[in-house]
Design brief:
By secondary structure, this protein is of the alpha/beta class. It has a single domain, classed as Rossmann fold, CATH 3.40.50. Helices cover 21% and strands 36% of the residues. The longest helix is centred in the N-terminal third of the chain and has 12 residues. The two termini are 16 Å apart.
Amino acid sequence: METRQIDITARNNKNVRLGLIPGHFATNHSHVNYFVDMTTIKTQYRAAREAAHELAKAYAHSKQIDTILCFEGTEMIGAFLAHELSDPASIMNAGQDIAVITPETNMNNQMIFRDNLQKYIYNKNILLLMSSVSTGKSINRSVECLQYYSGKLTGIAAIFSALKEYDNMHIDSVFHLEDLPEYKTAIPSECELCKKGAKVDAIVNSFGYSKI
């Protein structure tokens, strides 16, 4: 059990919590001083439902959504989000059968969609659903994939985002950088902890972290 973890709750929903573990962590793109633990939100029924309820507020009455494209283990949240958006009270998507899918990664680490899934991307309004956004590189990779398959990016949603927008599109998130004021991210060559000689505590990705 990680004894350093600090739990914080969402400003607008006390039923949505995430954990913060201080340290020196390395991701694929950067070094961060906190591991943002979203395990409960991704895996527990009630937490996922409540997070989806918060995210749905940004789209239920303003944007047409045909497909929710899930990344980093957000499939359960995506299913609840589709349910929220297709609710009869939703102006834009009431009664619509929204697809919830995840891209596949091939041996060259490229995102692809098999032929049977491409119908949910081609000329469809796509909502990207991420667990966290720190540098925007994962979004950029996802957008390139959408462009290849002729999908139309309609929105970007995340549980936590350190960025407010991507290419002039607002990123809607349950937790914002203001909720984690001490959170810092940097490319390895500019990492303050590395410059101070601090060793990396763990390698992190969307599945969690592994101590070194």
